[in-house]
Amino acid sequence: MKILIVDDEEYLREDLSEALERVAPGNEYSFASEYNSAMKLIEKSAFDIAFLDIQMPGKNGLALAEIIKKKCPKMNIVMVTAYSEYALDALKLFVSGYILKPVMDKDLKAVLDNLRTPVDKGEKAKITVKCFGNFEVFADGKPMTFKRQREKEMLAYLICLKGASASRKKICAAIFGESMTPEKAILNFKTIFYFLRKDLIQQGFEGILIHNSNSYAIDTGLIKCDYYDYLTGTADAADSYHGEFMNQYSWAEEYIWSLENY
Prior knowledge:
Blueprint: E1 2-6, H1 10-23, E2 28-32, H2 35-44, E3 49-53, H3 61-71, E4 76-81, H4 87-92, E5 97-100, H5 105-113, E6 127-130, E7 136-139, E8 142-143, H6 149-160, H7 168-176, H8 182-202, E9 209-212, E10 215-218, E11 223-225, H9 226-232, H10 253-260
Parallel strand pairs: 1-2, 1-3, 3-4, 4-5, 6-11
Antiparallel strand pairs: 6-7, 7-8, 9-10
């Protein structure tokens, strides 16, 4: 499990991580001492559980929990405090648990066994992608949301590459064409990639994007795609292509030629 521990006392962060390893070993931990540093971590990575101290300098743990609930609704939140009077406020946020300090192993195990959003320790979650017709992306049967249409287009282009990597220059040439200068295209690329990664993280699909220096790709193992199924000859995909491929993107026309000659 990926676990975030937020507490202004370093020794308490360490004590909690040690207790977690005793009752559920093998986790990956990140630590923050207050609201702002916690938010920076949440923007960069998806966590299964966040353990939040209620009393901290600046904005307290309840304020942080409220923001997490909005930004990352699938993340489990466990409030940790030495003061029982905060219990009602925490429960009103529908958190996954409430633990009093000092944290006891048995209480910690009980919380982990009864999380509001169970942590899947088996097969990684996949998004479902529809390439034939209009390009659409689904998670749990519902359309995924993107703050910018270009994010969706960038994801579409990377999916077309079927796991192969591409440079910023190549991706910019495809999705921007000659509509802007190379310098402006690169600046736009950085913004779009940032928000694409952020949106995927917030919806629980952090690992889909693979980024290394000036190399960008997707993990095809985390994607169920009609295009991929058709190319691999999956039985129920044999008749799925009817001459339309990512209709909303002009650069996708070259893939229609290859599909019709496949």
